[in-house]
Amino acid sequence: MLTTTLYYKDSMLTPADYSNLYDDNWLNDRCIDFYLEHLESNLPIKEGSVIKPYLLRASMSFLVTNIEDTTYLSKALPNHIFSSDIIFIPVNNKQNLESFVGGSHWSLLVYVKANNKFLYYDSADNYNIRFAYKYSDKISKVLGIEGNVEIMGTPQQINGSDCGVYLLSIIGQLYQRIIESSSYSNQVAFEEILKVDTQHVLPPSEMRQKIRELVKQLKNSK
């Protein structure tokens, strides 16, 4: 159990956030961002890589649909999105900017520059598809592109609380593939690499335990 706040890179986890990592709890922005920080730190882009992926943080992604002025949005979003070849975008149906909590479902949108496409992954039968189109439309305006959305096969959750866990499992699998493939070729078959291998997606309980163990290791190392 986490008894004090953990600060890791640009993320933080409070004891209350940590409790969300147990079964039947919904992962909040801090849980999502903590794991994304870990992925980016432990799977760095290799020197000389021709493909540059970027993990947009959950705490920033909801601004995409809630800031109408694209000029202001362009300034608010990290500069990395303008130089990246692949952008992983957590999608949430939260609409209230004034509330820290909110939303009921996480899904994933991945922009692939080479194909000018947004690939969409949703563990609840495309429950968030309306928001995915909003995100893709706004990102398209910010980047000055016209990208289409393609729905990808995704493992399906059996409850209302594991969407964030599937989000992290899928991002982890796809991000690792991109990092590994980007070291040897710029002729990457993106749509093949970005297909989810359902056989290697950890069951939600195991993924939750994996993240809890990671938190413990980091806490003990301080």
UniProtKB/TrEMBL annotation:
The keyword Hydrolase applies. PROSITE patterns: ULP_PROTEASE (PS50600). Residues 11-174 form the Ubiquitin-like protease family profile domain. Keywords: Hydrolase, Protease, Thiol protease. GO terms for biological process: protein deneddylation; proteolysis. One of its GO terms (molecular function) is deNEDDylase activity. It comes from the Eukaryota. Transmembrane segments: none annotated. Pfam families: Peptidase_C48. PANTHER family: SENTRIN-SPECIFIC PROTEASE 8 (PTHR46468). Belongs to the peptidase C48 family. This is 15792_t:CDS:1.
